[in-house]
Amino acid sequence: MTGGIYLHIPFCKSRCSYCDFATDVWREGDAVKRYVDSICSEIRNSKFESRNLADTIYFGGGTPSLLTPKQVEQILAAVNEKFVVDSGAEITMEMNPATVTPETLAAFRSLGVNRASFGVQTFDDRALKLLARGHDANDARATFEMLRDAGFENVSFDLIAGLPGQTLPQWEHNLDEAIATRPEHLSLYLLEIHAGTPLAEQVRSGRQPRPDEELAAEMYEMMLDKLAHAGYVQYEISNFSRPGSESRHNSKYWTLDPVFGFGVSAHSFDGRQRYANERDTAKYVELIENKNEAEVMREDIDVASEFVFLGLRMEEGIDLNKFAGHFGYDLQEEYRAEIDDLIAAELVKITDHSLRLTLKGKLFSNEIFTVFV
C-alpha cells in the first residue's frame, strides 16, 4: 500500500489572527527538542504496517522551517527507518518568509526536501500586520529569491482573498505580483472566519469589517481568469499549477489515498478509518513519552460519501461510471432529485459522464457537499 506521510510541526514565531490550527509559539529551550524526539518516537513505534511504501512526505504546521536542519534530518531518519520511501518522493516543507537563511535552505535541499509551500498570504504590509504574520512583503520577495538560489524548482505560493478591507484592485495586485515570480504552484483561498480566533473576535466586535461575499466572488472569478491566462491549470477548488506540478501529497486527501500522520493533531487515513492525535502540544509530548502513542480519535467513515464531496473538489469531478463500478450503485439515480435541483440552480453539471461543480458551484461548494454527507 503506497501512502503519504504528514508531519505536523506546530511552532510559529507568532500566532496569525485567523489561524485555528494546532500551533504553539516558538520558544528557545527544551520544548522543541522534546517535541522532535516525540514525533520520532511516534513514527518508530506506530501501529502502521512496517515498511509501507511512501511516495510523499509533507512537513506542515505551524512553521516547519523554524526547525534546524539537524532536527529535520532526525525526523527524516525516523521516517526512513519505518517506511520505504520512494526514490522519487515529493518532500514538501511549509515555509514562512523571514524564517530561513540561504544556509538553512541549502541544508534542507541537501536532505531531500524538494518542494516548498511558501506562506506569503498577501503582499500588502498593512494586511500582514493585521494578520499578525510577523513578516513584511519584502521578506516574502527576499525569501522567494533565496529558495530559487538554493535550488528549489518546485515552489507553491499561498495567498488569501477577502481579507478585511481588501479591495478588488489590491487583490489584483497580489495576483499580479505572485504570477510575476512564476511559482510552479499557487494555493489561493477565500478567507474563512473561525470561531475562537482573534480575527473572529475583531469581526464580532466591529473592529474589522465582515467579509463581503459578493466581493469575494468577484475576487475568485478574477483569480480564475488571470491564472488561466498565465498558464496555470486549476485542478482543485483552491489549487492551481503549471502542468505536472500539482501537489502529489495534497491530492492524496482528495482521492482518499492513505496518509500516515504524525505529530500533535495529525490525522491519518488507512482507506477505511480516520484517526487523530491529541491536539494540545504538551499533552501530546506527555502521551508519547509515557505511552508511545497519542491517538485520541478513531472512526469508520462513509467512504462513498467522502469520495463524492472530496471528488467534487477536483476540477475533473466524479466519473459516474467509475463510481458505480466501485461502490455498486448509480450516484445520479440515488440522488436524482438533489442533483436535478443542483443542476437547475447551475451549481453542478454533468459532462462526459462526470459530475462537476460549475463556477457558481465552487463559490457555494460547502453547501453542495452537505447534500451527499
Short description:
The protein has 373 residues and is an alpha/beta fold. Helices cover 41% and strands 24% of the residues.
Q: What report would you give on this structure?
A:
This protein is α/β, with parallel strands linked by helices. Helix content is 41%, strand content 24%. It has helices spanning 30-44, 69-82, 102-110, 125-130, 137-149, 168-181, 198-204, 213-229, 248-254, 281-291, 303-311, 320-327, 331-334, 336-344, 359-363, 365-369; strands at residues 2-9, 11-12, 24-25, 53-61, 84-95, 115-121, 155-161, 185-190, 233-236, 239-241, 259-262, 267-269, 273-277, 295-300, 318-319, 348-351, 354-357. A 9-stranded mixed beta sheet has the order 9-10-8-7-6-5-4-1-11, with helices on both faces. α2 links the parallel β4 and β5. The protein is globular, with a radius of gyration of 21 Å. The model has no long low-confidence stretch (mean pLDDT 90).
> In the CATH hierarchy, what is the class of the largest domain?
Alpha Beta
Q: How many domains make up the coordinates? A: 2
Shape: globular
CATH architecture of the largest domain: Alpha-Beta Barrel
- The number of helical elements comes to 16
What is the percentage of strand-forming residues? 15-25%
Estimated structural class: alpha/beta
Name of the CATH superfamily of the largest domain: Aldolase class I
Which bin fits the share of residues in helices?
Answer: 40-55%
What is the end-to-end distance?
Answer: 27 Å
Total beta strand runs: 17
CATH topology of the largest domain, by name, is TIM Barrel
Q: What is the spatial order of strands in the main beta sheet?
A: 9-10-8-7-6-5-4-1-11
Radius of gyration: 21 Å
Low-confidence stretches: none
The description of the largest β-sheet is: 9 strands, mixed
Determine the mean pLDDT: 90
